[in-house]
Predict the 3D structure of the following.
Amino acid sequence: MPYFDIRSDKKNEVYSNDLFHVALCFDKNYLYPAINTMNSVHKHNNNIVFLCLCSNLDEESRSVLLSIKDYGVRLIELNWIKKIDTRFYPIDVAFNIYIPWIVPEIDKVLYIDPDMICLKNIEHIFKEDFMIAMSLELSGMVEELNKNLFKNQIPFVNPIYYNSGTCFMNCKLIRSAHSAEEIDKEFIDKIEEYYLLDQDFLNKFYCKEIKTLPISWNVQFYEFNGGYFYKKVIREAFFIHFSFHKPWRHTSSFKQSKLYLKYSSNKEIIKRVKTARRKRIRVSLKNFFLSPFRFIKRRIG
């Protein structure tokens, strides 16, 4: 793989290569959300270990990951050899594209974003034989939103648009059909074509090969919040995806952060969410008391 290399590949004491593999990509800023995600998966699945594909970790972050005792963790740290412009995205955002070649000894991987919560057993998906599968991006299916929100200017052969928050990969089949050099040519060398880097690329490159997973595999909170089917969708979800406003930031709604807290177990992330909720209260109160003065100022001005 000419454009990045593996800096280190370490496993904790309970990691086993014989179990099912779930992969996450993150840097030190997403360490505790990622651990919270892994905790939620482990709660419902006893035969899953985790591939953590990371960049820009410090020694403390490495130690935290490799000291996990409840489930297997394999920490693979990667570094881009060729400088690429990921704009406002962290550089680890595209590592999932290369999973089949980063771990050539593994046949199947389920990739998930580190801002998700798992609610059910998911091990049955590893029995599937399709090459790649993702859930629909419902908002992206609306033509106007697809142009303005997702800003996809590339000509998809497949009119369906998928969210890559959960992405099942039959790595063995992918390696037999494609090469890492092919990925380099179509992604790295054309990176300016993609707005949502990995998601846009996966939609374009695998457009004729993607199978559709039910929405329950990637329930995005913002798409269903306040909707008629909200409660039913949450009950049936395998994963809830907290895309856009993150629950550990004060811009998140109280309803969203409450739902995230309900299924969270990592003490650090629980602390951050509660701190963010308190900040949101302070900001809301401040805006409430200042709103009459702002109104008067606008009228006078």
